[in-house]
Each structure stands twice: as C-alpha cells, then as structure tokens.
Amino acid sequence: MAVPDFLRVTLFWQAVRDRPEDLVVTVAVVDAEGEPVAMASGAPAGGRYPVSRWSRGEVVRDPYALWLGEGVAPGTYRVGVVVHRGGEPVPTEGASDGFLELFTVEVRRWGE
User: Which pTM value belongs to this model?
Assistant: First the structure.
C-alpha cells in the first residue's frame, strides 16, 4: 500500500452464547518495535449493535478504517487486534500480551 491512504480492515465476530458481555476492540498497526502507528478502538460495529444483544451463532460485521498518513515511514507493519472486557485484555489463543496479529502490511511511498 502507498501512503497516505486508509488501511481498511473488516473483522467478523461470532457469538458463542446468547447475550455475551459487552467488549471493546482495538485494531492497531504496529511497527517493528511494537509501537502503534495507527489504531482505532471502540465497541464492535461502531457500537450500533451492542454485543450484549447478540444471539448465539450470530455473525456480526465490524469494519475499521485506519489512516496511514505522511508520518508513517515505508516498511513492514503488523496489524492486529486486542479485545478488552472491563478494561482488561481478554486472553486469546495465539495472542502475545493480548495483541493477536492478523496479518502484515508493507507501506511504500508513491513511485517506489
């Protein structure tokens, strides 16, 4: 991807039980040192459809747009998610410190 531009990420959540507890999701783009260069945080689906109203088996679409502006240096970045409940990260299999890496993205300048 070339900067400046938006990185668009869509998560899909599936409820494992009726009316689960509400949670907050942080989607982040982090550099090699683990420092965030872009992030978005909030209730899934922008809070328009609270988690506590989900039904077991239901799948909910959760889109994000992360701005990668001129200040983001060219390079490879990790994109991942942290799920919080009650202010604490929810333990997730495969997650390091609550950060579950989803994929990597390479940022380039136009013409490079």
Answer: 0.85
What is the domain partition of the chain in residue ranges?
Answer: 2-109
Determine the Cα–Cα distance for residues 43 and 19; give it in Å rounded to an integer.
Answer: 15
**How many Cα atoms sit within 13 Å of 58 on the Cβ side?**
15
Per-residue pLDDT of the chain (112 residues; tens, 9 = 90+): 655 789 999 999 999 889 888 889 999 999 999 999 999 999 999 999 999 999 999 999 999 999 998 889 999 999 999 998 877 777 777 666 788 999 999 998 776 5
Overall fold of domain 2-109? Immunoglobulin-like (2.60.40)
